[in-house]
C-alpha cells in the first residue's frame, strides 16, 4: 500500500534504517495535550524542557489527524492510515469496543519485522495486540496507568530497564506515552481534576521524587477563545498546566538522566506528538483546539528552530508525513 509505505518510510528514514549505521528512535506522546507549551507561544506556562526539545526540532504548525480523539489519533500515528482505513473509528476497549482491522501493518509490527527492538511505556489504548505488538511493554493493560503514564520517576526507571536490556548495536524504537495531561476527575477524583495532585508530596498523595510541582494562579492562565472564560474553566486550566509541568520534567529525566549502555550515543531521532483532544471539548476540530497534532521531530540540525509549514495530515492526504521540508 503506497500510502502506508510513504508514511512509514519517513519514520524509517528517521530511524536511519536506510543508512549504513542503524539509528534508534524515541517517540514521546502527550495524552490530550493542547497548545499549552512555551514552544507554541503560550506565555503563561513554564515548560523549559519541552521548549529546549523544540529548539532542536522542526515544530509543525499544520499537522492534523482526521479524528481528534484518543485511540483514533494514536492508531493513525502508529499506522500512517486514516481511521476509515485502519478501522479504529473510536475508543478501544470497554463499551466502545473499537479495534484496528486485523490486516493492518503498524509501525511497531513493521519495525519488529525489520529487526528493530520495540518498546512501549505508558498509555497504549489501541488494539488488537497482533496489530500493535511491542517486545517490551509496561502499559495500562498490565499495570497502573498512573504509575506508567504519570509517575515520571517510575517511567525513568522503566526507560532505564529498557536501555539496559538492549543489545549493543541493535536499533530500537521506544514509544513513551504520557497519560498527562489527560483529565482524571472521573476515575481518580481524589487526585484532582487532572491528577495534578498525584505524587505532589501532600498527605495521601504520595511523592514522585523527580517532580517539583509548579502551581498556577487561575488568574494567570491563557483561556483559549473557544472556551468560556469562567472561574471553573480557569481552575481547570491551572490544574492542567500543573500536569503539563510534570510531563515537561519527565522529558528531562527520561533523556538526560539515562546512563546509556556502552557504545550508545545520545543522537536519537526525537519526536513529540500530542494526542489532540483539548480538555473538556471532545472531538472538536477547531484549528486551535482539537485536530492539530503539532509534531516536533528532527534528528538533523539542518532544520532545527525552523517552523514546519508543511501540511502534514497523518494518515490522510495520501499518507504524506513530510518530516523534511
Ligand atoms: C510563535 O510566535 C512567533 C512570533 O510571532 C512566530 O514566529 C512563531 O512561528 C510562533 N510559533 C508557533 C509554533 O506558532
Ligand atoms: C507487563 O508485561 C511485561 C512484558 O511485556 C512484563 O515484563 C511486566 O512484568 C508486566 N508488568 C506487570 C506489572 O505485570
Ligand atoms: C513513583 O515511582 C517511584 C519509583 O517506583 C516510587 O518510589 C514512588 O513511590 C512513586 N510515587 C507514587 C506517587 O506512586
From TrEMBL:
Cofactors demanded by this protein: Ca(2+)
Q: Which residues form the signal peptide?
A: 1-20
Q: Which domain of life is it from?
A: Eukaryota
Respond yes or no to whether keyword Glycoprotein is given for this record: yes
What keywords appear on the UniProt entry? Glycoprotein, Hydrolase, Signal
The answer on whether this UniProt entry bears the keyword Metal-binding reads no
Instruction: Kindly give the SUPFAM superfamilies that the UniProt entry links to this protein.
Output: Alkaline phosphatase-like
Task: Fetch the InterPro entries from UniProt.
Answer: Alkaline_phosphatase_core_sf, Sulfatase_CS, Sulfatase_N
Which Pfam families does the annotation name? Sulfatase
Per its UniProt record, what PANTHER family does this chain match? N-ACETYLGLUCOSAMINE-6-SULFATASE FAMILY MEMBER, N-SULPHOGLUCOSAMINE SULPHOHYDROLASE
Q: Which family does it belong to?
A: Belongs to the sulfatase family.
- Name of the protein in its database record: N-sulfoglucosamine sulfohydrolase
